[in-house]
Specification:
Elements lengths: L1 H13 L4 H8 L3 H8 L7 H11 L3 H4 L7 H14 L1 H4 L14 H19 L5 H17 L5 H13 L9 H10 L3 E4 L10 E3 L4 E4 L8 H15 L8 H19 L2 H13 L5 H8 L3 H16 L4 E6 L4 E6 L23 H4 L10 E7 L2 E12 L2 E10 L14 E3 L13 H7 L27 H13 L1
Parallel strand pairs: 1-3, 6-9
Antiparallel strand pairs: 2-3, 4-5, 4-8, 6-7, 7-8
Helix pairs in contact: 2-3, 6-8, 9-13, 10-13, 11-12, 12-13, 15-16
Length: 473
């Protein structure tokens, strides 16, 4: 709305109109127009239409996302910097920029903010910074019910152009999508260890690792993620928060392509009608992994199926590696609000399933918690030598739509109360406290800083050497 306000002011002053005169033309008091121009009030569409008519400007022109001129761009950029958490930490006052402020002074202020942001982004991305950024991003997605309509529409249109109609998206269709964007997919065995794919922008090449299993379905997602950077207009992230935002968006885009919204919603709606919703069926219908299907379900469940849901990926150490909830499930958090890295309750099926005998189908459980009763369905798997579980669940009242609702498995969880499962039994604690000295295994990534470079976590030397090697070949 700040940009819209600047566009209105730009065309008003260009036409030589005062706020009073524009107010007469659109039947609105000048003070309301001033709030709109300053981005402090969102106008109704009817008022925007009248403003456009009075200024002789199409409504679409007023709603464009680009600033109307260089001066406006500077004012908007300064306002954005002054709203940032980085500036808030300085405890400095917000600088007001009246229209009479010389442009060179405005350029100097913006330049100082750019340098402040650049200096901050040069710092090594610590685990604390990563958790903070990830927590903010998870909250942002929760406000949107994990649903991003713009990316949904973009992906659906691109998939349709490949000729895809139903079923699993094929490797050939992914290649066609890349070709339509001017890129060729090339599989190589010497990608730098710090990368999953590399795009040669001038050469129109996307380098991917060779398939490690017949069919290589994981490569479809990897190729789509590389394509997404181009489709979504990403630029070098600049800081870790933008890096995580871009990673979320490319993962979302890939899921939208592999499980297109219209086909996926139709499938899930029919399954709900039959009271046979199951992540494993959704997975098999579109030829994706259990984790991809469960995460995609969270994108569509609330907006299209009127279901509040939760999703968890838990490692064999009991730690939560990925999580989403908008159904009230009491997830454990640290003092910063971060969920990732916290330990799931031992009573949850997401964790207890890891100690059970291996199984190829989902297992379900009802869990009573202080926030209510939840139904969950879990499947376990392995990545390398480590086991993990993928869990999808809903509040008790919505279990009626899912296969597995008839389960007799039930547990009680009082977490985050430490007496639930965190504190050891009193007799064991009294016997062994002070009599044990374990040697803890230190996870290597805890003390490993991310390599510094234009893209967090990517070694620039390895990246450029790879591109040079293949450009010459």
């Amino acid at each position: 709305m700040a940009t819209v306000g600047h566009r209105i002011r730009h065309y008003r002053t260009q036409r030589g109109l005062t706020l009073d005169r524009l107010g007469e033309l659109v039947d609105t008091v000048p003070s309301q127009l001033s709030l709109i121009e300053n981005g402090k009030r969102e106008p109704k569409l009817s008022l925007l239409t009248r403003i456009g008519e009075a200024l002789g400007v199409e409504l679409a022109e007023l709603l464009r996302s680009e600033p109307p001129d260089e001066r406006s761009a500077l004012e908007l950029e300064l306002a954005r910097y002054q709203r940032s958490s980085l500036y808030a930490k300085t405890n400095l006052p917000v600088v007001k920029v009246p229209r009479g402020t010389p442009t060179p002074m405005l350029e100097a202020l913006v330049g100082l903010h750019r340098e402040l942001a650049r200096a901050a982004s040069e710092k090594i991305a610590t685990p604390e910074e990563a958790r903070r950024a990830n927590t903010e991003l998870r909250a942002w997605m929760r406000e949107r019910d994990n649903y991003l309509p713009e990316i949904e529409r973009t992906a659906e249109q691109l998939v349709a152009k490949t000729g895809h109609t139903s079923g699993a998206l094929t490797h050939r269709e992914v290649s066609i999508m890349a070709e339509q964007l001017g890129f060729t997919l090339i599989y190589v065995s010497d990608l730098p260890r710090s990368t999953r794919s590399i795009t040669d922008l001038p050469g129109g090449k996307i380098y991917l690792p060779p398939s490690s299993i017949p069919g290589g379905h994981g490569l479809r997602s990897m190729a789509l993620q590389a394509i997404a950077h181009r489709v979504l207009g990403h630029t070098p992230p600049g800081d870790y928060e933008n890096f995580l935002r871009q990673r979320l968006e490319i993962n979302y885009f890939a899921a939208c392509c592999l499980m297109p919204e219209s086909a996926a919603v139709a499938y899930l709606a029919q399954a709900k009608k039959n009271r046979e919703l199951a992540v494993e069926d959704f997975r098999d219908a579109f030829g994706v992994t259990q984790e991809s299907a469960a995460q995609r379900f969270t994108n569509l469940a609330t907006r299209h199926l009127d279901l509040r849901v939760h999703f968890l990926r838990v490692g064999d150490d009991g730690a939560i590696y990925r999580a989403y909830e908008n159904d009230g499930l009491p997830l454990p958090t640290d003092v910063t609000g971060a969920v990732e890295g916290q330990y799931a309750c031992r009573k949850w099926i997401a964790r207890s399933a890891l100690s059970q005998a291996s199984h190829t189908t989902e297992i379900s459980q009802y869990t009573d918690t202080p926030a209510g009763t939840f139904w969950c369905s879990t499947q376990t798997g392995t990545a390398g030598s480590e086991a993990f579980s993928i869990t999808f669940g809903v509040p008790f009242d919505d279990a009626k739509w899912f296969r597995g609702r008839e389960t007799t498995n039930r547990a009680k969880s009082f977490c985050p109360d430490p007496e639930c499962c965190r504190n050891p039994p009193t007799d064991l604690a009294s016997h062994w406290s002070g009599n044990a000295w374990p040697s803890a295994r230190l996870h290597a990534h805890v003390l490993s800083p991310l390599p510094e470079g234009e893209f967090p976590g990517v070694d620039d030397n390895e990246l450029y050497e790879f591109l040079e090697r293949h450009a010459q070949g």
